[in-house]
Design brief:
This protein is mostly helical. It has five helices and no strands. 91% of the residues lie in helices and 0% in strands. Among the domains are: 1-53; 56-119.
Length: 178
C-alpha cells in the first residue's frame, strides 16, 4: 500500500524538479521504493506496538463474547422449556442467573479498569520509572551507609591506636622514671 502511495508522489516530485528527463526519473526511482519500504516498516512497527497495548482489552472482549453466548444459550433453553415442546429444562435456574450476573459485573469492572489504565498509561509509566529511581537511590544510600560505617570503624580504630600509643608512651615514661 505504501508503495502504491509513495512511488507516484516521488515520481511526480522528481519530474517537477528535473523537468521531463526520463533518465533522471529512472535514477531516482530507487529512492521512491526505499522510501515506500521505510514507510511500510515504520507503520508496521507502530501498529505492532499499539497492538501490544490492546492485548488485555482483546482478551476481555473475548470473554464478553463468551458471556453473550452463554446468555443466548440460557435464553434458548428458557424458550424451549416455556414452549413445553421439549424435555430440556434449565436446572438450578436461579444459580445460573446469579452466576451470569456476577460474571457480568466482573466483566464491567474489568472494562472500566482497562479504560482507566489506558487513560492514565503515561502516569503508570512514570510511576514505574519512579520506583526504579527509588531502588537506585536506596542502593546508593546503602552503599553510603556501609561506607559511613567503615569510616566510623576506621575512626574508632584510629582512636584506639592513638590511645594505645599514648598508654605505651606513658608506660615507657614510667619505666624510665623507676
Amino acid at each position: 500500500m505504501a508503495l502504491i502511495l509513495c512511488l507516484p508522489v516521488t515520481l511526480l516530485l522528481i519530474r517537477a524538479v528535473s523537468g521531463d528527463s526520463q533518465q533522471v526519473v529512472w535514477a531516482w526511482m530507487p529512492i521512491g521504493i526505499v522510501g515506500a519500504i521505510a514507510l511500510s516498516i515504520t507503520w508496521t512497527l507502530y501498529r505492532w506496538r499499539e497492538g501490544k497495548r490492546l492485548i488485555t482489552l482483546s482478551h476481555l472482549l473475548d470473554e464478553i463474547d463468551r458471556f453473550n453466548e452463554m446468555v443466548a444459550a440460557v435464553e434458548i433453553l428458557e424458550e424451549l422449556s416455556a414452549a413445553k415442546s421439549s424435555r430440556l429444562n434449565l436446572e438450578n435456574r436461579q444459580e445460573v442467573i446469579e452466576a451470569l450476573h456476577l460474571t457480568r459485573e466482573s466483566l464491567i469492572c474489568g472494562l472500566m479498569t482497562e479504560k482507566v489504565m489506558r487513560r492514565h498509561q503515561q502516569f503508570i509509566a512514570r510511576r514505574q520509572e519512579m520506583f526504579s529511581s527509588i531502588e537506585r537511590n536506596l542502593a546508593t544510600l546503602q552503599m553510603l551507609q556501609v561506607s559511613d560505617e567503615a569510616n566510623e570503624y576506621g575512626r574508632l580504630l584510629n582512636e584506639a591506636i592513638q590511645i594505645g600509643t599514648s598508654v605505651h608512651a606513658e608506660f615507657n615514661q614510667l619505666q624510665t622514671l623507676e
